[in-house]
Amino acid sequence: xxxxxxxxxxxxxxxxxxxxxxxxxxxxxxxxxxxxxxxxxxxxxxxxxxxxxxxxxxxxxxxxxxxxxxxxxxxxxxxxxxxxxxxxxxxxxxxxxxxxxxxxxxxxxxxxxxxxxxxxxxxxxxxxxxxxxxxxxxxxxxxxxxx
Length: 147
What we know:
There is one protein chain. By secondary structure, the protein is an all-alpha fold. Helices cover 40% and strands 0% of the residues. It contains six helices and no strands.
């Protein structure tokens, strides 16, 4: 699991960050996030936890939602929303939220199947076609299997 408390502390220590809007799935998550306001200093354990993403390859999960990809896609696919769904599924391990998010995307055809090579130059370096084709499968999974 990602240490969200450490991640929030890290983000709030950036001099360019003035506001954070964390999402919550439970009351305990609210309490945990608010507790950092007592002390923003990262503990040695939290510093180690922040390295887990590098070690486990999580760097490719979090889209910055810059939107630069949309104009590059000849199919005008809402890639930022699809990438957010990917993050919910693989980063947060929340397939219900991933499914709910992907259902917000209005498309009748996934153009990625028709592109031999994806022309999108993602600012995060993501293989957009791979991620889109991977997460879009969640639409076909019956709700009772999304645990």
